[in-house]
Amino acid sequence: MQTAKARAVAAFRRHFGTEPAMLFRAPGRVNLIGEHTDYNDGFVLPCAIDRDAVVAIGPSNDADISVVACDVDDARDQFAFGDTIVPVAAGWANYVRGIVKIMQDDGIALVPAQLTIAADVPLGSGLSSSAALTIAVGNALAGIAGQAIDPTRMALLAQRTENLFVGCACGIMDQLISARAAAGQALLIDCRSLDCAPVAIPDDVAIIIAHSGIRHANTDGAYNERRRQCEAAARHYGVAALRDLAEEQLLAGRAGLDETSFRRARHVVTENARTLAAAQALETGDMARLGQLMAQSHASMRDDFEITVPAIDQLAAIMATPLDAIGGARMTGGGFGGCVVAVAPASKVPAVLDAIARDYRTPAGLPADVFVCRPSAGAGLA
Ligand code: GLA
User: DSSP 3-state assignment of 285?
Assistant: First the structure.
C-alpha cells in the first residue's frame, strides 16, 4: 500500500484537480506506562511512533471546508464556518468539524480550504489515530491561514475537540505527545503543569507493539465511566485530583468508599508512582526494573482498573515471556482491546516476534499485526 502521504496527495489531485499547497503530518503514539493517569492530573510516559496521520491542504474558492477521507472510501464532507457546525454520523468527519469549530471559538481566524486526509496509524488500535488526525488537521488549517500555533495550545484545542465535540472525556496525553514529541525520546509528562521532560530511548532498546485484533473505542461508555469513578474517589478523599493522593492516605481514608472506587483510586495512585520510577529506570538503563514496573502496571489495569480483556492479558504474557525479566510488556492505551507494548533489548526482537507468531491469534483466528517502532518526532510538515 502507498504511504499516507502518497495517498493524501493522489486523492487531492483526483478530487480537487490541483496540487496541494501544503502537507502536514502528526504521529500516533504508544504509551510506555502511566495509563488513565492523565485525566487525574498525573504522570504519563509516551513516545510518538513512526506512523502518521497526513493532511494535504490548499485554499478553496468553493465551500468553506471540503474534506476527503482517503481511508474511508474517499468519503467527503463539506461545511461552512460558523455556529452551525454540528456533529454528523460519520465518526471521522467529527474530528475535522470539531477542530474547525474549536479553533474558531478560540479566536483563530481560519480561511476556506480543501483537504484530504490519510493515516498510517491503524484506527481503533489504541495508538491515538484520532489525536494524530485532529492535530494534523488543526496544524494544516492554521498553516494555510498563515498562522503558527504553539504545540501545547494545539494539543489543548485537539483535546477540547474530543471532549466537547466527539464526546470522549479523554485526557491530554495523546494530543500533547503527538504535538510535542521528539525523535529518540519518550516524554515524561506532568499532566497538571503540562511540563514535558525528555527521557532518551537508547538505540539498543526496542519498542514492539502488537495489536490484539480487538478494536478499542474511547467513545464507548467504559472510558468515561472510569473517569467519573476517579473523580468521585477524589471527592471522597477531599483532593482536587487523585494525583494529590499519597499511598498512605489511600489506605487511611478508605472507610466509606466502596470497593470498586477504592480499587480504581489505587490503580491511579500506584500507576503514578510506577510511571515516575519507570522514567528513572529507562534513564539509567535499568531494564529489569522497567520490566517489573510494566508487569505491575498490567496487573493493576487488569485487577484494579479492570480495563484489560483476556486476549490482551494473554498477548502481554506471550510478549513478556521471551524477555526473561529484562524489559517488559503491558497493555497500552485506553483499554478493552487495542495493543500491547513491549520495551525490550533490541536483541530480543526476533524472539518476541516468534512468540507472538507462534502463540497468539486474534479472535478472528489471524496472526497479530506487529510494529517495531522508533520513537519519532512530533507534528510538523510532511
Ligand atoms: C486514551 C485517552 C488518553 C488516556 C489513555 C489512557 O488514549 O485518549 O487521554 O486517558 O486513554 O491512559
Answer: coil
Q: What is the DSSP letter of 376?
A: B
**Whose CA is closest to atom 9 on ligand 1?**
171
Cβ count within 10 A of residue 2:
12
Annotated catalytic residue within 150, 174, 286, 354: 174
Residue 266 corresponds to which cell in the numbers above? 489505587
Q: Is 174 a catalytic residue?
A: yes
Cα angle at 154 between 94 and 127, to 5 degrees? 65
Distance of CA 94 to the CA centre of its chain: 17
Question: Residue 71 and residue 84: Cα distance in Å, rounded?
Answer: 26
Query: Per-10-residue mean pLDDT for the chain, 382 residues long?
Result: 95 98 98 98 98 97 94 95 87 95 97 97 86 98 97 98 92 98 98 98 96 78 93 98 97 96 98 98 97 98 97 98 97 94 98 98 96 96 98
Q: Which spans in 240-286 are helix H?
A: 247-252, 259-283
Pocket test for ligand 1, best of 29, 32, 36 (most atoms within 8 A of CB): 36
Query: Which residue has its alpha carbon closest to ligand 1 atom 8?
Result: 170
pTM above 0.70, yes or no: yes
Give yes or no for a contact between 81 and 137, defined as CB atoms under 8 angstroms apart: no
Nearest ligand 1 atom to alpha carbon 172: 9
Q: 36 alpha carbon to ligand 1 midpoint, in Å? A: 6
- Cα(334) to centroid(ligand 1), Å: 5
- The domains found in the chain, sorted by start residue, are 4-197 (3.30.230.10), 202-373 (3.30.70.890)
Q: What is the β-pairing status of strands 328-332 and 196-200? A: unpaired
143 lines ligand 1 (CB under 6 A): no
Cα gap 186→251, rounded to integer Å: 32
